[in-house]
Amino acid sequence: SIVGVKPLEKDTRKRRSVSSEEYKLFWNNLEDLDNPEMKLIGMMLAYCGCPQGETAGMLRGDLKLQSNVPHLIIRNNKHRRLAKKRLERVIPLVDPIVEHWKDYISNYFKGSNNDPLFPKYGVGKYQVQSRSKVLSAMVTNIEGGKDILSSYEKKDISTEANSSNRQESNKQYF
Q1: What is the pTM of this model?
Q2: Phi/psi of residue 53, each to 5°?
Q3: 140 near 22, Cβ under 8 Å?
Q4: Please, are residues 98 and 149 in contact by the beta-carbon 8 Å criterion?
Q5: DSSP state letters, 83-135
Q6: How far is it, in rounded angstroms, from Cα 55 to Cα 40?
Q7: For 87-102, how does the pLDDT look when each residue is reduced to its tens digit (9 = 90+)?
Q8: Backbone phi and psi for residue 36, each to the nearest 5 degrees, phi listed first
Q9: Which candidate, 48, 40, 75, places its Cα nearest to that of 59?
C-alpha cells in the first residue's frame, strides 16, 4: 500500500462481461449510426470503457489530435464533474478511433476549444436520458438476463477486445 492513499473499496455489484459477439454487434451498430455525436460517445465507451457522461462532457480543448501521441483528457470542467471515485486521466488514442475523431472535428464540430465537443448530448437537462436511449438501442443482449449496458467497463471490454478482430497494435490500449 502507498502511504497516505486510501485503498479502493471492493466493487460487489454482480456483472457479466460482454461476449465477443455482443461487442462486435455493438461496434458494428455504432459504425452504422447516422448520429456523429452518439457514434463517438458510444465508440469511446467500447474503445476504452469511458463512461458515456465523461465522454459527452468533454470540451474541444480536451482532445489532442495533433500531439505526438493523440489523446484525450478526462477532467472536471464547467459542464460536468467527474463522479466521486473517478480520476482525471489521459487516454491515448489509436486508429481507427483517431480517424473517427478527425472526421467528427472536420465535418461536424462547430466551436472553439472551450466549447463542449458534444453540444446536443453533453450539456442540457435531458442529455443523460437521450444518450442512454440511443446507446441502449445499439446493445444486443445475446445471452439474455441482466442488462449488459452497465457492464461496458474497461475491464470487461478489454477482455473482449483481445478476443475480437481489433488490430494487435490497438489491444494494448484496452
Answers
A1: 0.68
A2: -65, -35
A3: yes
A4: no
A5: -TT---EEEE--TTHHHHHHHHHHHT--S-TTSBS-HHHHSSTTHHHHHHHHH
A6: 9
A7: 778 899 999 899 999 9
A8: -60, -35
A9: 75
Residue-wise pLDDT tens digits, 105-130:
999 999 999 998 988 877 766 577 78
C-alpha cell at 144: 439474455
Q: What share of the chain is helix, strand, coil (3-state, %, to 5)?
A: 45, 10, 45
Sign of torsion, CA 107 119 27 139?
Answer: negative
Q: Nearest CA to 117 among 67, 74, 70?
A: 74
Identity of the residue numbered 51:
P
Which amino acid appears at position 57 of this protein?
Answer: G
